[in-house]
């Protein structure tokens, strides 16, 4: 190998952790590169910023709870399906901190944007930048196509009639029955569109084929990652004190347009604060108000959290106003293609109430070492490592075997509560097994493929 190629190998970095992504930056030699490739196919992952993986693990637990409740106890997640009063009360009290759909999904998106830029910001070289982009594209294409393809194939073969039967017997008026691809070309096109559409993420075919219609989340992550790639390349070469102002101006513009860009800029901003020593020092000193008077950032985190939680509880009690904050996006009233009503009907969007809570949590994570220590707890990191695998397995298992098992138990005279309990226990074991298989057979090999493809390109 030539000296130039050796130099390229030495500057190769990172490791992508999941579809939403974390990329660790570690210089490699020729020998080191081979060692990293070997490490990538093992389940035991080590590295810095484990607290971010642990935070993803917390979101995985909340996502699992929401998926089960939405399907089998829908009154706990939505007012669309009437149920016992105590379930409606539990929804109003506990759904916000524990299983709020919008908060979970939007947190995943911002956390993804927070992690994908770590490698480049820590080691801003051309090789690091190319590696971050190339490896992530390959990895997400592999895992999304396999995950989506599996779900589409399964429902094509077994149909969706049993889901309609289940919805009538439970009853469940909250969820929609997944669509079925009418031929192989439609299924292939749905996979192709995952990586090319720039609007209508929720109504795309792949999302309608997906059980519980949540495939739009990784699709948004993939699309918005290019916003981060565009913005992050500027930061290492400009004055740190202008970073927050510049990203803030970009966020205001995208907020005006009601796009997802302000979520991407938020994630990048927190990554920059965590890595840039100048910004970290300012974070610890507090927000300067006047001369030597500074306001500690933990007070800002408390204010953001209080505002977001107050808004979320308001929507829980008065759900008819849940989309009232769309009036804060002036573009929707000026656009020829959108209005607040049509935008609301097009599917989930970047919400301001969720943004307040997410920013409060990320601020607290950056400020308090004890919180980082807690989030680095090994079981949480283990769950975070397998976040996409668990996402795939929980959707497929509960919407196929889980529903079929519930119908059998209910048909044999078991109570709804008893059937739900058995389905949850059996489903949890099945999800854990399926997720581990997917992780080892798809997730880890996709990392190996992404790594070696990049090495092949630079060689």
From TrEMBL:
Residues 1-12, 25-34 have a biased composition (Basic and acidic residues). The keyword Endoplasmic reticulum does not apply. Residues 1-34 are annotated as: Disordered. Coiled coil: none annotated. Keywords: Membrane, Transmembrane, Transmembrane helix. The chain crosses the membrane at residues 141-163, 215-235, 295-315, 355-375, 387-409, 421-439. This is Acyltransferase 3 domain-containing protein. It comes from Zasmidium cellare (Wine cellar mold).
């Amino acid at each position: 190998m030539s000296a130039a190629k050796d130099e390229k190998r030495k500057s190769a970095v990172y490791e992508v952790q999941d579809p939403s992504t974390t990329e660790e930056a570690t210089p490699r030699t020729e020998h080191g590169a081979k060692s990293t490739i070997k490490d990538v196919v093992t389940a035991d992952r080590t590295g810095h910023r484990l607290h971010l993986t642990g935070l993803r693990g917390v979101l995985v637990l909340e996502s699992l709870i929401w998926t089960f409740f939405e399907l089998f106890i829908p009154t706990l997640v939505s007012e669309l399906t009437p149920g016992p009063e105590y379930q409606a009360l539990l929804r109003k009290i506990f759904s916000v901190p524990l299983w709020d759909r919008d908060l979970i999904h939007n947190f995943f998106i911002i956390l993804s944007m927070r992690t994908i830029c770590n490698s480049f910001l820590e080691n801003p070289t051309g090789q690091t930048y190319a590696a971050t982009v190339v490896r992530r594209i390959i990895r997400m294409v592999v895992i999304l196509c396999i995950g989506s393809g599996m779900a589409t194939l399964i429902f094509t073969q077994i149909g969706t009639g049993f889901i309609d039967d289940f919805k009538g017997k439970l009853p469940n008026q909250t969820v929609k029955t997944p669509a079925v691809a009418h031929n192989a070309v439609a299924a292939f096109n749905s996979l192709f569109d995952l990586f090319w559409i720039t609007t209508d993420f929720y109504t795309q075919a792949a999302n309608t084929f997906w059980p519980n219609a949540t495939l739009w989340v990784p699709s948004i992550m993939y699309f918005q990652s290019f916003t981060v790639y565009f913005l992050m390349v500027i930061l290492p070469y400009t004055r740190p004190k202008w970073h927050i102002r510049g990203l803030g101006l970009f966020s205001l513009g995208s907020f005006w347009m009601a796009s997802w860009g302000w979520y991407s800029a938020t994630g990048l901003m927190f990554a920059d604060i965590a890595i840039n020593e100048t910004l970290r020092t300012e974070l610890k000193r507090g927000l300067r108000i006047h001369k030597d008077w500074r306001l500690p950032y933990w007070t800002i985190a408390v204010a953001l959290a209080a505002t977001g939680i107050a808004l979320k509880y308001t929507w829980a009690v008065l759900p008819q106003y849940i989309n009232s904050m769309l009036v804060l996006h002036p573009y929707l009233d000026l656009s020829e293609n959108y209005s607040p009503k049509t935008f609301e009907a097009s599917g989930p969007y970047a919400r301001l109430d969720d943004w307040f809570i997410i920013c409060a949590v990320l601020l607290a994570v950056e400020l308090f070492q004890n919180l980082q220590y807690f989030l680095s707890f090994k079981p949480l990191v283990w769950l975070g490592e397998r976040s996409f695998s668990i996402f795939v397995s929980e959707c497929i298992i509960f919407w196929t075997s889980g529903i079929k098992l519930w119908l059998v138990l209910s048909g044999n005279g078991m109570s709804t509560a008893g059937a739900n309990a058995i389905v949850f226990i059996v489903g949890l074991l099945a999800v854990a097994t399926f997720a581990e298989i997917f992780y080892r057979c798809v997730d880890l090999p996709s990392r190996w493929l992404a790594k070696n493809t990049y090495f092949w390109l630079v060689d």
